[in-house]
Automatic annotation (TrEMBL):
<protein>
    <submittedName>
        <fullName>Uncharacterized protein</fullName>
    </submittedName>
</protein>
Length: 115
């Protein structure tokens, strides 16, 4: 075995060690993120939501398919309301994706006279 083979062999081993260290760091970071998420979920969700209740509830989205559907309907259906339809679609989607959080959000909004 030549000296070059020895050097390359060592480099490969060092690269493996570096990769293993990076994987371990990534695993540790993911554990940390999970822990932070659990801490947030353990906090009182209503109190966190109440911090936002008096802010402007406008939401901006960037979606060409949604935009095109809404524009088509607006221009072809008399009396079509883009905002109302977008609101209903967003609420349905969030209610389906996050039913527990959405239920708490509805409760907080009702208690504060927002809906």
């Amino acid at each position: 075995m030549s000296e070059l083979d020895l050097i390359f062999g060592r480099k490969k081993k060092e690269e493996k060690k570096e990769t293993e260290i990076q994987v371990e760091k990534t695993v540790e970071e993911n554990k940390s993120i999970t822990t932070n998420a659990n801490e947030v979920s353990n906090n009182n969700i209503e109190e966190i939501m109440k911090k936002f209740i008096d802010k402007d509830p406008k939401i901006g989205i960037w979606s060409y398919p949604s935009y095109l559907v809404l524009q088509y309907l607006y221009n072809t259906v008399p009396g079509f309301k883009m905002s109302r339809t977008a609101k209903e679609a967003l609420e349905r989607g969030l209610k389906e994706m996050y039913p527990d959080l959405f239920q708490v959000a509805e409760k907080v909004a009702k208690e504060n006279g927002k809906i």
